[in-house]
Amino acid sequence: MNTASLVKLEYNKLIEQMAGMTMSGEGRKLAENMKPSTDYQQIAAWQRETNEALQLLVSGASIPISAMEGIEPFLALLGKGRIYHETELEQLAVWLGSITQMKKYMNSKRDLAPTIASYAESMHDCPVLREELARCIRFGLLTDDASADLGYIRRQIYGVEDKIERKMQHSLGKYRSSLQEGIISKRGGRFVLAVKKSLRKNVPGAVLDESASGQTIFVEPQDVSELQTELSQWKVAEERERSTVLAMLSELASRYEQELKLNVQAMASFDFITARAKLSKYCDGKLVRLTDKPVMRLVSARHPLLGRDCVPLTAELGMHWRQLIITGPNTGGKTATLKTIGLLALMNQSGLLIPADADSELGIFRNIIADLGDGQSLEQSLSTFSSHVMVLKEMVDMADSRSLLLLDEMAAGTDPSEGIALSIAVLELLLERQSLVAATTHFNEIKTFASATEGCQNGRMAFDPDTLRPLYRLEIGEAGDSHAFAIARRFGLPEQIMKRAEWLLERKRIAAGTNEDERSDSFAKLLGQSKQLGTGEEAKRVKEKPKPKPKRNEERRKPPKKAFQKGDLVWIYPLKRSGVVYRPADERGQVIVQVMGEKLSFNHKRLNHYIGGENLYPEQYDLDIVFESKANRKARNQMRRKHVEGLQIVTPPDEHS
Hints:
MutS, DNA mismatch repair protein, Chain A, domain 3, Rossmann fold, elongated
């Protein structure tokens, strides 16, 4: 699958959400590495697993997934001669207990989830190892029963400690008057008394430590010295036997290396399958009909990342038409519709249940490629149009009958007439290759192409003309309008601009000599003619028909260049944008042009007429409204009526009255 398209369709966000629903590190890795498949049997098996796990969750069952904490580093060193600590071996014992629990749980769910229940048969609870660990380790320590020698040694330790305790209690009472504190403490693992330094001679024994102030010394009484030496010897023996027992348990665990690693894989798979089911439950996913044909029929489908409150989508591709051209206003849901179509196709081929009615049907696509957003790249210095063309080339190269192609805002980013022609040519080629295409556009010519071409269908995003709000509902069979003027008014664009825009649009239609419907009819006829001509001799003759040559006098005669007037709309070549003439050319040919609220100076040779001021503004129109700020206009009107102390008009350096 196309990696860039996976990102554009937000597949990575879905993966991240699902990975957060796993319980173990190994399960998370499986979730993060999930990729759509193109194999029918594999997809069907994945969906069966997900649906069975979902049934377990819906039934209220809590699947006993182990977090497997500490197991991965444990297994990484298994069989390499390492002697594990009691806490590590106890973690292994706890984990083997979870394996046993999972096997029992799945065995009890065979009727509800027969497929995934059978996977538990491959798990090994290793009863000999598990029982030995339980016998030898409890609460992170070796038990006295871990070995006969360890039990004997510890009994000797308990006996010597008891003797030392009795003698220390006797010394505590005997030397109480010489003690700094009436307590028994330890220094270096040996029992001592806190004796006043000045009375040291009253307590026979070895000094083992001294306080920071030097006023207290810690004395091991002479009558317990031999017992404490004996205790130290037994402690050394205990540590030696502890190492022997841990080595034995570690070696026993290494014999089950293969079984333990298989258990990790099985538990991670259960974790991954359960996470898919959790995601499906979260977005109200259903098991829809899976077909090997490259078709799509979505009934009441929703984008999984938009929540359950988003407006359901009903659409189809590959059954009655192969291309769906979606039109309608901006912010009306066109792009969201493309994302929903693409993401649900990816979910389906990843073994996930999709948020749509069970009556929906989805096929399998070899290629899913999306061209969404403007795609500008600062690193590669790509314009919006260039990025679109790059994706279009990839689509054309990969297009076949098993391709799902999603194109957002066709003909955008370049000259509309050229963009429209290019878009239609691409759609024609993709139609020949039987690819499934869902595209959005604002251009009537592309809408007309869809209505006039077999295998294509128009669709529109519903719009409420009364409230001027999009309804986010796809309606198949009709082309929609952009509703640019209605939306602009809704967002508060000044009425002066709106009336002017409507007047300019009407003038444009009048200048074209026809209305929108007539242009659409003419375009449809042109499409029909181009299909009839094809690439035969007749088309060649039309293409090669010579144009009448102009007369010599007409070639030589050049119309004089019209002088720029205040209010003219001009094209500024250095800036590659338009501006309004504020001051005509002076004796040096410099023209002051207002661009984005600033007044800049350009040589007249760097400008070209765009629209004359007489075609932009009504007669007697006050151009100060265009060039001056509201504050300056108000100040000027006040100056005309009377003198106002301190009132002034500030103009930029290039601005002149």
